[in-house]
Write a structure and sequence with these properties.
single chain, alpha+beta, 10-stranded antiparallel β-sheet, 3-stranded antiparallel β-sheet, DUF317_SPDY, DUF317 domain-containing protein
Length: 274
């Protein structure tokens, strides 16, 4: 399901009048444009399986393993739900993201579904410590402003701990103020996807938002961005082109692997003579 010219024009029309402002920190920037996620998956070949006239969006990957649900009418705090079905060699897993999680962070995770899995992965706490987050031996990390926290949650003796990330208002006794947003990645979520989300979260680079965006937290810092609205749209379009190329390359590798396996199966080596 490629992104149509009409959809790209609608995205451009939305941002044409919105002068971008560099907004930090990321965890307080607000959700931004959900099309950062949905356009990216469409460019990768995901298809919509939900009612086109419904506010709920359900996208499914070409191999039918992954499903993303976006439900702005959800009765729970999770508007985004990403699920992976188990395969013969990999377990299933799921992740959930609240309404005010920046779409750029979710998009960084979903973009990494396309690429190859890195052979070496740093520990998620190492990623956060390098970004000046405060970490401890219990697997907890706090952002420099103390409003965003990552913690490990052990649900069973034989299960890997899940990661829960919460952004809260400042409370009287620490991280106990009203919830702003929550993200949950279960213990079977691949490490490189967890790292992709966390790296994007802790990145000090600003996100682009409109001035006085009502979904951004009142304590965010905003500065006029050097980017023009046209450059914001051009960057979005260039990202979609890169995703399409990456998805085509991945499908090509898969076809070659499948063909090679089928050829090997149909032409077994003759038994060695004694």
């Amino acid at each position: 399901m490629p992104v149509s010219e009409r959809q790209l024009t609608a995205f451009a029309d939305t941002h044409a009048w919105r002068i971008p402002f560099d907004t930090t920190p990321r965890h307080l920037a607000g959700p931004g444009d959900a099309r950062h996620v949905t356009h990216g998956l469409a460019a990768a070949g995901w298809t919509r399986t939900s009612d086109p006239l419904s506010p709920e969006i359900v996208l499914r990957s070409p191999d039918h393993r992954y499903t993303l649900q976006f439900d702005p009418q959800s009765a729970t705090s999770a508007w985004w739900r990403l699920r992976a079905e188990p395969t013969g060699t990999e377990p299933g897993w799921h992740a959930e993201f609240g309404a005010l999680v920046p779409a750029e962070l979710i998009g960084q995770l979903t973009d990494n579904l396309l690429g190859s899995v890195p052979t070496a992965q740093p520990d998620v706490l190492q990623v956060l410590h390098a970004a000046n987050w405060e970490t401890d031996e219990q697997g907890t990390a706090h952002s420099p402003d103390g409003m965003c926290r990552l913690e490990l949650r052990h649900l069973g003796r034989h299960e890997a701990p899940s990661r829960c990330i919460e952004t809260r208002e400042r409370g009287h006794g620490g991280h106990d103020g009203p919830l702003i947003w929550r993200a949950y990645l279960d213990g079977r979520t691949p490490t490189h996807l967890v790292n992709a989300f966390v790296t994007a979260l802790a990145d000090g680079a600003p996100l682009q938002r409109g001035i006085h965006d009502p979904t951004a937290h009142h304590s965010v810092v905003q500065q006029p961005s050097p980017l023009t609205p046209q450059e914001v749209v051009a960057a979005h379009t260039a990202r979609l082109r890169a995703i399409r190329a990456q998805a085509r390359a991945a499908r090509r590798r898969q076809r070659l692997t499948t063909t090679a396996a089928a050829t090997a199966a149909s032409n077994p080596r003759p038994a060695a003579r004694r």
